[in-house]
């Protein structure tokens, strides 16, 4: 075992009081953060001494300590005791309250409460915190979760996402109001068909499509749940003349990197961090076309290649249907996975099976309420909340307002309903 790794393992044992444990296995991994920086981790699984064998191959036994350490910062990202059972004799909270937990987090992370993070939710020994600046949350946000058992033992700690330094934040005075963006609020109110699995029907409801509005109101930013991927925008419809009847053979995907200690110690840049070159882009477009000719041979012109991005040593191509029922709350999505070296398609994922779950649902309710009427009913329920949103062009978090609404208007009756009930 490498001397450096051995030192990290020994310090982990001492820090968390793992005298009643033995190291079952360890490995190295790497990830990219939202800044496109490569971060290396040492992942350890510690078994309680009284556990000799793993009864189920896929499941760690109760009491196992799963610990993840950032090798460069030497800060822990994850500590989980399986089954909320700890046999460790290290740190123990003398009192389980917000102040003691916050003090411990500040020592572990170097972050300051109120300046970098704040409490989002507390319940029965579980504490959830989110990254913030001047009491405003980020998007994407950093999260910290701590769970302590009734004896004061730490049973879970996880830190995920970015807690941006001040130099990454574009400081502004928040000037947005619902009155000032009423034209955008009206535009974001959409008539959508929500599937009800209980009645097996599609229910037409006017609801708000969430967006971020920039502080100066010059642009809007759609909610993007994959912001940290930094995709390359393509937006190219795909056409072909002849189908290819050769069957497509899926290849098994590798779920993790093979990372060496030399790469981790030198902090070698991950291949995922490099931009997709023009040559790679052109070959991927050809590969997407060839794949569609094989697997979706009768659908020429139906699909648009939206983006390309790297992920775990592969290149992912994201496609959307050109024409579909825009009133449906769920839209068709196809992901084609390419080997990053050969640029050959090796696998794919289609959300059609999920959509098929409600494909037979009927839409028996008649739309009797128009958009103007629905807007007047629901506008008092709109919410505009300040958020710092990451802008990859500026490499900064910029101040925006999150326009959202937790309610909708049933188009058949005009009744205001909670979207959580659908």
Topology, number of strands: 22
Tally of helical runs:
7
What is the helical fraction, as a range of percent? 10-25%
Query: How many angstroms separate the termini?
Result: 54 Å
Order of helices and strands: HEEEEHEEEEEHEEEEEHHEEEEHHEEEE
Shape verdict? globular
Strand coverage percent:
35-45%
Structural class: alpha+beta
Rg on CA atoms, Å: 25 Å
Summed over residues and divided by their number, the pLDDT gives a mean of 91
User: Major beta sheet, specifics?
Assistant: 13 strands, mixed
Low-confidence spans: none
How would you describe this structure to a colleague?
By secondary structure, this protein is α+β, with helices and mostly antiparallel strands. 17% of the residues lie in helices and 36% in strands. The protein has helices at 3-16, 98-109, 182-188, 261-266, 278-295, 352-356, 371-378, and strands at residues 21-32, 38-48, 65-70, 76-81, 117-123, 126-133, 136-139, 143-148, 154-160, 189-196, 201-208, 211-214, 220-222, 232-238, 303-311, 314-321, 333-339, 345-350, 383-391, 396-404, 407-410, 416-418. The strands form 3 sheets. Strands 1, 2, 3, 4, 5, 6, 7, 8, 9, 12, 13, 19 and 20 form a 13-stranded mixed β-sheet that branches. Strands 14-15-16-17-18 form a 5-stranded antiparallel β-sheet, with helices on one face. The radius of gyration is 25 Å and the shape is globular. 26% of the residues are buried. The model has no long low-confidence stretch (mean pLDDT 91).
